[in-house]
DNA sequence: ATCTATTCCTGGCTGC
DNA sequence: TGCAGCCAGGAATAGA
């Protein structure tokens, strides 16, 4: 099977949570096997001893974090770059954690191991408000480049590299702009909300030609206007899209439409 | 307090 | 053709 890369940002995690919640709600965890200890590096509690016997009450999301509420405590999952949750699949070379449930086996696969699984919500508590809630424009007024502010999960949580670039394009704001005005901040937050909701409708963005067994995965990559479009013509004005580095991340923008 | 650079990790791509 | 070297990026960390 060809692996697909979904670059899990808020819309991708939301899509996964919507699939996961009805399948996990009410189930019990039978046993847990950690094949790669690095994945549980942030956990203060050994998940292999604390999880067996727990009942799953709910699955929800904050930013890019998946939160599995249990009858006692919760489990927090971050997919990093390449994390995947797979039901009833044979373990492969990148299977890092195996959850045996009362009616299924759930695998956590992750090639690059940037993802993390921990007992408790310590890291979630350090996050800013979820990017799909009502956001305060004044929080964007900082000295750092506005794109770096968008990526700062302590300011707003859930926006990653793809949707930061896409929202800045839609708002007509250059990624390197600093101390942006109130009207521009409001415009940018409206663009963030638009792009995230549209992406959720498309089940997120998938990078590569992979189609799963149901024939559906994210398709929002077809709507990308700047991300991964370096040197291609701007969809609005035809100017070649430029790629620079902002906040240590590859950043795509239209030099004419974004000021 | 805020900002910036570096680190982790590996598949896939580039170029010699 | 083969392989070294670089690139991608979310979040933690160290340093400014």
Could you name the key traits of this structure?
2 domains; alpha+beta; Helicase, Ruva Protein, domain 3; DNA-binding; 5 helices; N-terminal domain of MutM-like DNA repair proteins; four-stranded antiparallel β-sheet; 22% helix; 259 residues
Would you write up a description of this structure?
With about 260 residues, the chain is of the alpha+beta class. The protein folds into 2 domains: about 120 residues, Alpha-Beta Barrel (N-terminal domain of MutM-like DNA repair proteins), CATH 3.20.190.10; about 120 residues, Orthogonal Bundle (Helicase, Ruva Protein, domain 3), CATH 1.10.8. Helices cover about 20% and strands about 20% of the residues. The chain has a 4-stranded antiparallel sheet with strand order 1-6-7-5. Strands 2-3-4-8 form a 4-stranded antiparallel sheet, covered by helices on one side. Strand 2 and strand 3 form a beta hairpin. Helix 1 crosses helix 5 and helix 4 crosses helix 5. The protein is elongated and about 55 Å long. About 5% of the residues have low confidence. The protein binds a DNA duplex (16 and 16 nucleotides) through loops.
